[in-house]
Design brief:
- The protein has 2 domains: 2-40; 71-124, no CATH class.
- The radius of gyration is 30 Å and the shape is elongated.
- By secondary structure, the protein is α+β, with helices and mostly antiparallel strands.
- The protein has helices spanning 2-11, 17-24, 31-40, 110-124; strands at 71-79, 85-93, 98-105.
- It has a 3-stranded antiparallel β-sheet, covered by helices on one side.
- It has 4 helices and 3 strands, in the order H-H-H-E-E-E-H.
- Helix 2 (17-24) packs across helix 3.
- A hairpin with a 4-residue loop joins strand 2 (85-93) and strand 3 (98-105).
């Protein structure tokens, strides 16, 4: 059994214990016995760790004091009674519970959102954030 395991690993070095057991199980060996021998001979592969992203500098959220200082933009999606879907593009002022602009359609391309924001800046002025 050990010779067969080592031969299989020599031919397939990237295969772990699961694939090795699956390939050799038809010869009458049980999975637990194959795995025990596999571990005793230290043939198990080292697991790859997660790739970590660099840590971001966390800044506390600042509550704006005046209106028109900070705007929030988000999308909402829903469907009508016949199953037709639509989306809304919402621009909100963070100080007031006020919706500055709402665009509703079945398709909202980027040009339309840019146009809506440009018109809103012309009317209300550019926000700080």
């Amino acid at each position: 059994m050990i010779a067969r395991i080592e031969e299989y690993i020599r031919d397939n070095p990237c295969h772990g214990s699961d694939r090795t057991c699956a390939a050799l199980r038809h010869r009458g060996y049980s999975k637990s016995r194959l795995y025990r021998v596999y571990r005793q001979h230290k043939l198990n592969l080292k697991r790859r760790g997660k790739r970590r992203l660099p840590e971001h500098i966390k800044e506390p959220l600042v509550a704006p004091a005046t209106p028109n200082a900070v705007w929030s933009v988000h999308f909402t999606a829903d469907a009508v009674w016949n199953g037709r879907r639509f989306r809304t593009f919402n621009v909100l002022d963070d100080v007031n519970p006020e919706a500055l602009r709402i665009e509703i359609d079945t398709s909202l391309p980027a040009r339309r959102m840019v146009r809506a924001l440009t018109e809103l800046i012309e009317v209300r002025g550019r926000p700080a954030m």
